[in-house]
Amino acid sequence: MGRQPSQHRVLEFSGTPRACGRAYGECQAEAVRAFMAQEVPPDGKRLRYAGLCWEKLQRWERPVAEWTRGMAQGSGLAVEEITLLLLHEEIVHTKPCTGFGAAGAATRDGGAIIGQNWDWGPSLYPWSMLVRARTDSAPATLTYAYPGLWASAGMNEHGLSLVWTGSGYSPKVRPVVGIPTYALIAGILACRSCRDAIALMEQSPISGCFIFFLADAHGEVWVVEGLPRRILAVPCRDVLSRANHYECPESCAESRQSLPPARVWHNTRSRALRAAELLQKFHGRIDGHAAQCILRDHEPRLGLSICQHPVPGRPAFTIDSFYAFPARKELWIARGLPCRHDYARHGL
């Protein structure tokens, strides 16, 4: 039997950000409530924190704030509850993905490419979808999404693309009042280039931790290591990769990072080393085929590899896999384990 086709539901919205958010909230109302109850059940402490973050968010990027307001109206939830959902990364803080970027002489055509495996717990598998949005005040976007998290990764009409991994896990870095990571992603995908996105982040009161991979149609690729209130942006000269730990000395020091020995549950060291090996193996000829080989990799063994299968001691696995060509405005996505499914092309 060959690989199975990839199938993602695609939702489409157009109009003002408020109207798009309202329509999204209406059609996803039950899913948003169910996803919130599963992932970030509201309580008084969480809602107070979300309310403080909403005070920052509503004065931040207007299209993102307006979409958030619209989603609250459409779903029948309070805006603090929607903000709580956008704080998923800050509160749950368990996304163990692997990402990479390549540019210039490292790629077959000299253009930029970024990609990742989206690894999460098994209860998250049924929820992912794609969202196409065309608003009158921001670039059109194609985003990878979950109920209420309408911009979890993706690309815009200018080619600016974003994938990412979680970090700040060893030890866990406490979030602060600020812009939720999933709202920050939506704001970044309203920018035209990597440098514009970095400037936005530098001016934003960031709430939590992340490692973003950015790429644009000009051929630039950057990795951005984020911590509450600060970022460290590093340009990609040829290849770069990250698992779930910081690699820049400043980020390591500020987070007081201390990694445990490599093992099945804490396998960030193993995945980071393997990703770096594979990028060197394909250096000079990184293209879509090479990206798929990297994301489907099973070495040195299951549980320590890039393609994450559920194994004893580690329930998380690769829910979806994707890579982006910014210059072509193409996002290629495999639903589920990429070793079992074909990648499907999605364009803007």
Termini distance?
Answer: 32 Å
Helix residue percentage: 25-40%
- Count of β-strands: 14
Using only C-alpha atoms, the radius of gyration works out to: 19 Å
Q: Which structural class is indicated by helix and strand composition?
A: alpha+beta
Assess the beta-strand content as a share of residues: 25-35%
Number of discrete domains: 2
Assigned CATH superfamily of the largest domain: Penicillin V Acylase, Chain A
Under CATH at level 1, the class of the largest domain stands as: Alpha Beta
Which strand order do you get reading across the main beta sheet?
A: 1-4-5-6-7-8-9-10
SSE order: EHHHHHHEEEEEEHHEEEEHHHEEE
Task: Sketch the major β-sheet.
Answer: 8 strands, mixed
User: What global shape is seen?
Assistant: globular
Contiguous uncertain segments of 5+ residues: none
Write up what this structure looks like.
There is one protein chain. This protein has 348 residues and is α+β, with helices and mostly antiparallel strands. Helix content is 31%, strand content 25%. It is built from eleven helices and 14 strands. Strands 1-4-5-6-7-8-9-10 form an eight-stranded mixed sheet, with helices on both faces. A six-stranded antiparallel sheet has the order 11-2-3-12-13-14, with helices on one face. The two termini are 32 Å apart. The mean pLDDT is 96.
Describe the structure in brief.
By secondary structure, the chain is α+β, with helices and mostly antiparallel strands.
